Each structure stands twice: as structure tokens, then as C-alpha cells.
Amino acid sequence: MATTHFPDDFKCPISLEIMTDPVILSSGHTFDRSSIQRWLDAGHRTCPITKIPLSDSPSLIPNHALRSLISNYAALNLPKSNQNQQDPEILIENLTSKSSSPEVKLGSIEQLCQLSKRDFELRKRLTESGAVAAVLNCVSRKDLVLQEKALKLLLNLSLDDDNKVGLVAEGAIGDIIAALCGGGSANCRATAATVLTSLAVVEVNKATIGAYPFAIRGLISLLREGGGRERKEAATALYALCSFPDNRRRAVEGGAVEILVNSLNSGLERAVEVLGLLAKCKRGREEMVRLDGCVKILIHVLSNGSSRGVQYALLTLNSLCLGSEVNCMEALKEGAFELCLGFLEDDNEKVRRNASSLIKVFGGTG
């Protein structure tokens, strides 16, 4: 099958994939947003290329010029196998027309999904043409295949920061939550959670999404009942939303703590990231303390988890042990102090900092 060969400059230095949302770091180098964000979330505070030190909260500036270049190049260099695709304007017309059959709408959405993934200009055209309302109408349909494809197109549209607020203004949240909580397929529910994560990148959307009835409870339900991908996407969405304080309270009240601890115990490491945020509120800490084995499970992550998992397990233990001699004694009994000493030489700056902080907490209990 023929493929489009993109210039190397269009590829992210980290993932080596064509960039869909290029952003500029303060070092002057450009990366795909998702890749550099993962690098930063892992605790790194240097440029991956130059190793130049970065601030504690590095700015990611959209590289609109490069994104347009990639979009234009893709449009001019479509592989021959794609040449039989319809003109995007016709696809948009078919999607928005009330007279189009569900089959025609499905075909249009499938092609628009494929075309819009790397085409910023098409995504912009879709939002400006009034197509969002038609996409949301498909999301709310009982046709599960149409619903799933429409959610994927919605996810593509949410790649651009300007669209994230616009989609919420169009009323997307209600339809996404309905798909999340409905009796749809596993893929539908997982994709709905992913769209919420994407929209929650914008700070104002965190509050808006959290205030919707059943938004956070729907994610908690998916975390409890879903399969592997659904649980992972639900935990990721909860993490994105719970950086907003009011949403931590909503998550705790919805029973998230016990489900997250159980999920962590069964191997879903992403759950510890959410616990790290929920431990910042008093109710969250109280719920964790109430659960037998929570501290032991967190110590297990210190021994066996990834760098990011260790970072958040340390963060959670700091919150639980500060001011609680009982929790401190349990953590010390499980070997937390010795593990923390080893983390003082870790490559991850946040792991070193959190370990040092926890050692000081232990010292205060002596």
C-alpha cells in the first residue's frame, strides 16, 4: 500500500512520528505536544535534544506555521490509494445534510476521520462549517458504529486548543457523557473518555466538565466495570479533571478512592496518579486511610512501579504520612525509608524531591 513520505523535519524527535500538534519548547526545538508532555510528566526538566534546563512549568507554544506546512504537504502528497476519496467539501455537505442517509453519513465521517487526523486546515473548516452539530447528532444516535466513528472525529477536532473551548460551547459535553454512560460498545465508552481528557487540557473546561451530572461518576463507573483500555482511559480522564480542586471532591464523593486503590492493586498503575491528586484533599486522605492495605499497595508501587508511578506513590504517601504517625509507622514497617534513600539518586527530579520530602516527614515522627 502506498504511503506519503514526509520530510524528517515533520517528525517529532521523541516519537519519530509525524506531528499532529507541534509545540515549541523554550529551547527552541519543536515536539509533538503529547510526546513532550509525557516527557515533562515523567519529571524531566531538560530539553530532550539539547539538555538545556527548563523551568518547573515549561511553556508549550503552538507551532502554527509548522502545523500548516504539514497539513498542506499532506493535502498535496496523498498516496494514490487515497485519490478516490471524495472532496472534503462534499463530505462535509453529506454529513450536514438532513436528507443524507445514515450510511452516507457514516461513509463521510469515516473519510473525514482519516483526512482530519493530520490536517489542521480541514479541522478548522469542519468547525467553521457548522459540522460539529451534525457530528454530535451522530454521537447521540443509537447506531453504535456511527456513534463510535463520530466520537473519533470529535476526538480529531479536539486536537486544536481553539476547538477545545468551542466544542464545549457547542454542547459537546452532554453528548459525550451520554455515550460514556450509555450502553454503547467498549470502544465507544473508551473513546468518549479520551475526548473528555483532550477537552480537559484547557483549564476552564475542567470545571465545566466536572459540573456536569454523571461526568465524573460515569468515569468512575467505567473504571470499575470496564476492560483494560476503558479503565486506562477512565483513569487518564480522571487525572486530567482532578487537577481542578472541586473535581477531587466530586471524585471522592463518587467512591473513586476505593476503586482506584483496587485498580492499582490489580495492576493499573495510572490509578496512583489520580490518588496522588485526591490525597491533596482531606476527604480523599480520610478515605485512603480507611481502606486496609492502601499504604502497603503504595509501597509496592515504590518497589515495582515505573518512574512516573513511583513519583505519584511518593506524592500520595507524603500526603498520607504528614501529620499521621500511624501511617508513618506502617510505611516504615513496609520499608519505605530504605526505598526513599535509594530514590535520592534517581534520574527523575520529582522522584528525588518527593523522596527527600517523605524522609523529612519520617524524621519528624521520631
Written description of the protein model:
The protein is mostly helical and 366 residues long. The chain contains 22 helices and 3 strands. It has helices at residues 33-41, 64-76, 88-96, 102-116, 120-128, 131-139, 144-157, 161-169, 172-181, 186-199, 203-211, 215-225, 228-241, 245-253, 256-265, 270-278, 282-290, 294-304, 307-321, 325-333, 336-343, 349-363, and strands spanning 22-24, 30-32, 61-62. It has a 3-stranded antiparallel sheet. Helix 4 (102-116) runs parallel beside helix 7 (144-157), helix 10 (186-199) runs parallel beside helix 13 and helix 12 (215-225) runs antiparallel to helix 13. It is globular. The mean pLDDT is 88.
Break the fold down into its secondary structure elements and pairings.
Blueprint: E1 22-24, E2 30-32, H1 33-41, E3 61-62, H2 64-76, H3 88-96, H4 102-116, H5 120-128, H6 131-139, H7 144-157, H8 161-169, H9 172-181, H10 186-199, H11 203-211, H12 215-225, H13 228-241, H14 245-253, H15 256-265, H16 270-278, H17 282-290, H18 294-304, H19 307-321, H20 325-333, H21 336-343, H22 349-363
Antiparallel strand pairs: 1-2, 1-3
Helix pairs in contact: 3-4, 4-7, 6-7, 7-10, 9-10, 10-13, 12-13, 12-15, 13-16, 15-16, 16-19, 18-19, 19-22, 21-22
Most strands sheet: 3 strands, antiparallel
**Helical residue percent band:** 55-70%
SSE order, as H and E?
A: EEHEHHHHHHHHHHHHHHHHHHHHH
Provide the structure class.
mainly alpha
Overall pLDDT score: 88
Total E-strand runs: 3
What is the molecular shape?
Answer: globular
Task: Give the count of helical stretches.
Answer: 22
Q: Give the percentage of residues in beta strands.
A: under 5%
Give the radius of gyration.
22 Å
Strand order of the main beta sheet, please?
2-1-3
State the end-to-end distance: 67 Å
| Uncertain ranges | none
